[in-house]
Design goal:
Order of helices and strands of chain A: HHHHEHEHEHEEHEHEHEHEHEHEE
Oligomer: homodimer
Largest interface: A-B, 42 and 41 residues
CATH architecture of the largest domain in chain A: 3-Layer(aba) Sandwich
CATH superfamily of the largest domain in chain A: Response regulator
Strand content of chain A: 15-25%
Number of strands of chain A: 12
Helix content of chain A: 40-55%
Shape of chain A: elongated
Number of domains of chain A: 3
Amino acid sequence: MKIVTINDVAREAGVSISTVSRAINNRPDVGEATRKKMLKAVEKLGYIKNTSAASLKQHQTDFVAVVLRGRRNIFLTDLAERILDIGKEKQLRFLTEIIDEKADEFETVRRLYRERKLAGVIFLGSKLEGHEKEAEELDIPCVFSSIEAKFLNGKHISSVSIDNFSAGREVTNRLVELGHRKIALLGYFGSISDSTGLRFHGAKESMEKHGIVFDKELYEECDFTLPSSYAAMSRLLMRRKDFIAVFASSDIIAIGAMKALNDWGFTVPGDVSVVGFDGTEQADYCIPSLATMRQPSEQMAHTSVELLLEGMQGHEGKHVLLQPKWIESKSICKL
Amino acid sequence: MKIVTINDVAREAGVSISTVSRAINNRPDVGEATRKKMLKAVEKLGYIKNTSAASLKQHQTDFVAVVLRGRRNIFLTDLAERILDIGKEKQLRFLTEIIDEKADEFETVRRLYRERKLAGVIFLGSKLEGHEKEAEELDIPCVFSSIEAKFLNGKHISSVSIDNFSAGREVTNRLVELGHRKIALLGYFGSISDSTGLRFHGAKESMEKHGIVFDKELYEECDFTLPSSYAAMSRLLMRRKDFIAVFASSDIIAIGAMKALNDWGFTVPGDVSVVGFDGTEQADYCIPSLATMRQPSEQMAHTSVELLLEGMQGHEGKHVLLQPKWIESKSICKL
DNA sequence: CTGAAAGCGCTTACAG
DNA sequence: CTGAAAGCGCTTACAG
């Protein structure tokens, strides 16, 4: 694989490298005949631009980083996919960075910025708590997707999310309407600046409003994986058996919980009602289909790209709230 | 975010940029006191190396590309995850590129090569057919993971996979042993240089050996998604109802098929036995647990990294076959 | 052990 | 519309 540079193209076409550069970057100030000649030479030699060299010289490139934290989270990976698809249509060039839950995404962005001089960043699954300062110091357009970042100061910061607190309250309201009062919570309570934590804080408020004392014994922590949620559900079953509904803070957690219930001989929803959260594809295809609060991921993806584009044009950041949709499915029933 | 360069560090520490460069790259020929001073300056200024500039100058970096084709394929994304984890321990720096099923991965690699001067590539989910030449022309160590590439010429090419043909035959043997003779095939027959196609060619051989005439009407094509497999299973059910076993060429396809069967009022395995392929986590957590042929993904990941490392040290490529493991689970039963 | 200097492949004012 | 030249931030022989 011999490396073809702009010099080779220039020699082949009999012009200077300046002209080649202008032609391959679609600058207007190039003669039509020259451009044609160029393209032929590029084609013939199989030239590909060395973007390292280009971005070293340019002070800004059109690269947009998508930083996805938590590669196990299917809702987020799906959202990332959609963002990538939509952005590509808008001619954005993406740099996808999938990082560990424990990694520091701002460190990642600073590194990417140095490497490629980013034009913007879309954050998925960020944990903002304790990183407010770092987020504010980034002076390129940032969009926090699926998490509300209204509390951050920074004209370049946007966010798009549902109102997780209300959504969690809503889910719980539905369960209470169906007659459930012993509701177990499976997932992560976290802080109220964390999207998943907010859901449970909303759930708690709903319970209290309905005169249900929230029982800490009915909460089990787990992360967004099948084994973890299966184990959490099993711990709960080992300890107590008097709940009749489970509110899982994501679909994947609900699916793990349903498996544990099944293994213990309980039927869903006959013995226990289960609701998830996110509204992923898997919720539709598990047996029974999972009741869930669907986040409008297509719309979320569109808005994320939209906000980023606006930011790149110099507009101020905005914080958009989207409407989730309750999916009443077969995993819950009236008591 | 002011950009700090090597010059700023040099000035801060009162040395030349050459020395800074050597210090930050852990070269041995730097005085201990100087190195210390350097690190302090780097720390103070928040310097991060501009890798564009570095790789422009260096003729080889330590970047390894992981090209994952088909982001929907959970077996592959899981395998990629493992490879990334193992490689990180071995100090490899990865460049993850997730591309569309329709995209050209060799074009992607050539681009990455130009951008970052790759030290090697791991391909996941490649379709080699019609791209033999391109693979052979890459003159950096390549590992094809989960697909056999023995038929390619190139000292730098390695591969690690199971014997998909035998595995497909084995799955079918099991079904026949259980008394099944009307076996439907769900997935993609493809060519025999394609890992999933091989499975069905193996299945066909098993059938023929057992005197079963393969009935094309019992084959439905779909890709590796839940909606696609659900639709394929539905088409099959619409057309024929006389099969009593389904061999899906991946777990995700099997799960979609089980949902369709369930919606049509059939029970698994009571009415229809279902087997998947891959042995992903989801197979364990669906209801009923899915019988499947497990690919040893942990071992596959280890071997992929091992082969890549060997290749980077100049060794010749190898083609390794791993042993899959049959998981006899609750989705199948004796007739 | 350290520094001055060349050069990696591009882009972009500046001339013409 | 085109070219010569400077320079982006690094690394690396080459001297010393």
